[in-house]
Structure formats: structure tokens, C-alpha cells
Fold:
Amino acid sequence: MSISRRTARTVRILGVASASAALALGVAGNAFACSIKDFSAEAKCDGEKGIITVKDVDPSGTPATVSVFLQNNNADERKVGEQEVKGSRQGTTVTFAEDWEPNAVYRIRVRAVGKNGKVLVDEDIKPNLTAPSTACAAKAPSTPASPQESETPAPPASEPEPAASGPDASAPATESASPVPSASESAAASAGDSNNAPSPAVGESNLAETGAGSNTGLIAGVAVALVVIGGGAVFFGLRRRGGTNNNR
Structure:
């Protein structure tokens, strides 16, 4: 049975198309496969604390384990931490809390295994991560105010000025202050006033003290007369009352 030229051409076209599709799928599979190029690391500050972030932009979403090591003289000094990340086309980030020192060096190890158990990635991110030369700024501690600054003592009360000595000692301290006379000076002043009044005559002085020169005698006479009149009235009244009783 012979194959026609038309059939042979059709088979040839189908073969070329199949090969092209297989090649395209293979290339696409390799393009979407997880690789170390999908990972990047950065040391930065989160407020006052330092952190290390690792970003995975693997579009296939293959889970990967990320390990961070602090380096010292090209050797691992300590392990900072380990986390699992599942990449995405937009990128997925994992964060490690690390208070890094300026210019510190870190080694980032990535290991990814495919669904068929094949190891896709098992290597370090190159080059190693170097922290910035400036540490994260910390807040300056507030300094409490010292007792001398917070509590200002009140100024001392002004002391009285000492009395001046010498010829000006008797001068008053201030012009507005008026001297207060003492008791002896007041008595002397009153005595002086009484001495300045004109003294009465000898006869007038005795009469003023005894009251002979006033109306005292007239008042005394009237009082005696009233007493006598009253006594007589009482006497006559008692006598009249006794006579009335005898007639009964």
C-alpha cells in the first residue's frame, strides 16, 4: 500500500507541530521552575530594631526552606533562624528578627524540593548579605530632671539692715516711717498740757473740790424739807387711823 504525497505531507506537519509543542512545554517548564535566582535578601530597620528579609518571586509557588547564618571569618558563627516560604509572581517575603551590627555578614541558604521529590534548589544566595554601615537609630533615653533643677529653693527673706553707727545713727530708717511716741513721752506731753492751763485761785480751788460754791446746799435743804413733810403726813395718817378704830 503506497502512501500518497498528500498524506505524507499531513503526517510531516503533525510531527513538526508535536515537536514544537513539546519543546515549548519543556522551555516553559524550565522557565517556571524554582531557582536560586528567584530569591533575594536585605538587611534593614523596623523602627528601632534590625531585621533581615528574604523575598521569593518563584511563579510556580514551590515551597522552599530559607536558613540565615551569621558569618565570622567566612564561617558560620550562629544560626539566626529558619523559615519556609512559598513564592509567587508578585513575590512573598519572610522576615527574621536580627539586631544586626553594622557591616555584619550573613549567609542565606535556600533549599527547594519539587512535587516529584526532585531537589530544585540547594545553594546559597550569592553574594552573602552585608548589613548597612549604620545601625538602627534608638530613641535617646529621657534624662530625669535633677533635684536642683526641678525644685528651686525660695529666696531667703531679706534681713533687716543693721543700725547705722556714727553721727547719723539717730536718723530714721525711712522717710515714710513716722516715729511712735513712747508712754513716758505721752505722759510728759499730757503733763505739759496740764501745766499750760491757767491755775485757779486758792479760794476757787477749795470750793470746786467741796462743792460749796454750787447748788448743792439748796438741793439738800429741799430734800430735808420733803423728808419732814413726809414724816408728818405719815404720823397724822397713823393717828387718824387709830381714832377711827376706837370709835368702832
Strands lie at 39-46, 49-56, 63-71, 76-86, 92-97, 105-113, 119-124, 129-130. Residues 25 and 31 are 10 Å apart (CA to CA). The longest strand covers residues 76-86.
